[in-house]
Design brief:
The complex is a heterodimer of chains A (322) and B (330). Chain A has 322 residues and is an alpha/beta fold. Chain A is built from seven helices and 17 strands. Chain A is globular, with a radius of gyration of 21 Å. The model of chain A has no long low-confidence stretch (mean pLDDT 95). Classes of the chains: A alpha/beta (322), B alpha+beta (330).
């Protein structure tokens, strides 16, 4: 096994410095190539830790059983390195969401040069994982989000990812500028993983996802078929635009949740309150509209009218159908 | 009298806030014209001009402008992103959402979706709709009308502003979430105007924009009795493939002494790029093609790949790169 650290793009900054887009490449045999990309948003760090853990696993493999790697693994932990280094979600200076700049342009602005270089580097991959960590407001259970247009190819892969939810969403034109849409439309399968919360790392989620990633890589032939791996511990529920309920704040204030993330809730159950620091009374009670599972929960307490506090996936049991 | 509000909302720790607008003319009819600015809280030329225009139209409606008459109803929203204006933020400051990426919005959704929905509900019934922008903090635009895949009626009406340029641009995926696109779902005509640079009020551009809006009001018959100045007559129409974006292949400190709105010959000097540490001249930026300088970079810190200028050309050029660029500044 050979390990290379290289850069897929070098751009000059205004004052003396350069911006480089680094990756780590693990070469095994002639098997398929897979990639993990993270850090498209500079405030989402979960994927950076996943990259570290995968690098550590692969380095150990290289020391002990290098023949197990049959293909090629590429890790891109920080597609928005300036954003991560300056604690900004968007591309600093350009104030643009890097994940709305795909597929990019070789002669465009810096964000488009980054995305064009990424698209070029990822061409030919058997699978790309694009790992996101929500934002600073909301905590997400490990999930894969899939555009319905790509469901046939991607859902079977996602089922093996050891995640808790697969969320199928409708096709929106604005999402055509994302890495996932750009790759999938060019025939490179790309799964969008969402987990955790912005500006934090949740090691337990990384452990959970690692199991899924390695199993999928083995199934694709990147890792030897006889490699022993942990069994799946999570089976995903299927969410779509019909069974996901959004709880938006009725009033502004401080949201104080009363339930844990990723628990079953029943219709009418109080999930939390919105209070005002100016007075003792409760401004608004937050109740579940359905029986279901709380898979998104607000982490950041201050809410404006309309702020999302929770998402619940409705679970239709036979009893509730009757 | 307290102005009407298109949306009222609670705030976490301050008093409730509202997005106020001007509703001038007979309330019996549907509005003929809706003007919106300040969707980005740092674009102040439009906020200033629309507040001045509302003042002018109120005077006309009250009979304080002899010979003038207001014949239709006009809706004016000087600033949508009110918290952004007050805190000098382009985006909605609480969650850094760009309101002009939230259209058509949703009245039970996120805060900015609710704002987008309310702005759209108010303005969509107007026959003419105009969204005014001032680029961003880095770039200055000559006052111009922008059309995105327009119909023939819009092509023709766009000239009524009398601005020096009407520029047609291609749609891209991002543009589908703007108010300009959301307006297209209904009847009527929609326009985007770009004027100047964000972060400041530029009196010359504001005067030009004010005259353009008054000329539009006059030529569409919304206001009668206005004597229009002859100096604004020369307008140019640039179709698709007549916009050349000049991209820098050098990083450094960029300086230019040029004003927007002037005509360039191929080879004319646009500015210089200096090494910000050594101080030496790295590159002299020259116009690669003749045309009208419709926009120029004012931010000196230059990345490799940055936009230095836009030149509107008489001969056709590829608009391949430009299609990717117009999510910036709008």
């Amino acid at each position: 096994m050979q390990i290379d650290h290289d850069s897929i793009l070098t751009l000059e900054l205004p004052y003396r410095e350069q911006l480089q887009l680094h990756r780590t490449v693990f070469h095994g045999g002639d098997g398929p190539k897979v990639a993990v990309v993270a850090g498209i948003h500079g405030d989402e760090l979960e994927g950076l830790y996943v990259c570290h853990r995968l690098a550590a696993w692969l380095e150990e493999l290289g020391r002990t059983r290098p023949h197990i790697l049959r293909g090629r693994v590429e890790l891109y932990p920080a597609l928005n390195p300036l954003g991560i280094d300056t604690l900004q979600r968007f591309v600093p200076v350009f104030d643009t969401d890097l994940n709305r700049n795909f597929p990019g342009h070789r002669e465009g602005l810096l964000p488009q040069r980054i995305t064009e270089a990424v698209m070029r580097a990822l061409a030919g991959a058997a699978l790309v994982l694009d790992i996101h960590a929500s934002n600073v407001f909301l905590r997400e259970i490990p999930q894969v989000r899939i555009n319905q247009a790509s469901a046939a190819t991607l859902v079977p892969l996602a089922r093996q990812m050891n995640i808790d939810v697969i969320w199928l969403h409708g096709a929106l034109t604005v999402l055509e500028a994302t890495i996932a849409h750009s790759l999938n439309s060019r025939g490179v399968p790309c799964l969008v993983v969402e987990m955790g919360v912005g500006m934090r790392i949740t090691p337990a989620f990384t452990d959970q996802l690692m199991t899924g990633i390695l199993r999928v890589w083995r199934a694709l032939g990147v890792l030897a078929p006889d490699l022993a791996l942990d069994e799946l511990t999570h089976e995903p529920l299927l969410a779509d635009d019909n069974n996901v309920h959004y709880l938006n704040a009725e009033t502004s204030g401080l949201f104080i949740p009363e339930v844990e993330h990723w628990t079953s809730v029943h219709r009418g159950q109080r999930l939390g309150r919105i209070v005002s620091p100016h007075e003792g009374s409760v401004q608004s009670e937050v109740r579940s509209p359905v029986d279901g599972v709380l898979f998104t929960l607000r982490e950041y307490p201050v809410v404006y009218e309309g702020s999302l506090m929770a998402r619940i996936m409705e679970v239709r049991t036979e009893e509730s159908v009757q | 009298m307290k102005p009407p509000a298109l949306l009222r909302m609670t705030a976490p720790l301050r008093e409730d806030f509202e997005i106020a607008y001007h509703d001038i003319g007979s309330a019996a009819a549907a509005p003929s014209l809706a003007l919106v600015a300040g969707i980005h809280g740092d674009e102040l030329n439009g906020v200033f001009v629309l507040s001045r225009l509302a003042h002018f139209l109120r005077g006309v409606a009250a009979g304080q402008q002899p010979g003038h008459q207001l014949c239709a109803r006009v809706i004016i929203v000087p600033a949508v992103n009110i918290l952004g204006v007050n805190t000098r933020s382009r985006r909605w400051p609480f969650d850094s959402t760009d309101i002009n990426r939230m259209f058509p919005g949703y009245n039970a959704g996120e805060t900015t979706q609710r704002i987008a929905h309310a702005v759209l509900e108010l303005t969509r019934p107007a026959h003419y709709r105009v969204d005014i922008h001032s680029s961003n903090l880095d770039f200055e635009e000559m006052p111009q009308v922008r059309l995105y895949e327009p119909n023939d009626g819009e092509r023709s009406t766009a000239r009524l502003f009398g601005l020096p340029a009407v520029i047609e641009r291609r749609m891209n995926a991002i543009f589908t979430s703007t108010i300009g696109h959301a307006w297209r779902a209904g009847d009527g005509q929609s326009f985007v105007i770009q004027a100047g640079q964000a972060g400041i009020v530029q009196p010359a551009h504001c005067d030009r924009l004010f005259r353009a809006l008054v000329a539009f009001l006059s030529r569409t018959g919304v206001v009668t009795g206005v004597a229009l100045s002859d100096e604004d007559e020369e307008g140019h129409y640039f179709g698709l493939q007549h916009t050349f974006p000049l991209i820098s292949e050098h990083a450094g400190l960029f300086v230019s002494r040029l004003d927007v709105g002037r005509w360039l010959q191929a080879g004319d000097v646009i500015g210089q790029v200096y090494d910000g540490f050594e101080g030496e001249l790295r590159h002299e930026v020259k116009a690669p093609i003749a045309g009208l300088l419709s926009g120029i970079r004012r931010q000196p810190l230059l990345f490799e790949g940055d936009l230095i200028a836009r030149i509107q050309t008489r001969q056709a050029v590829s608009d391949d790169i430009d299609t990717h660029l117009h999510s910036q500044g709008q």
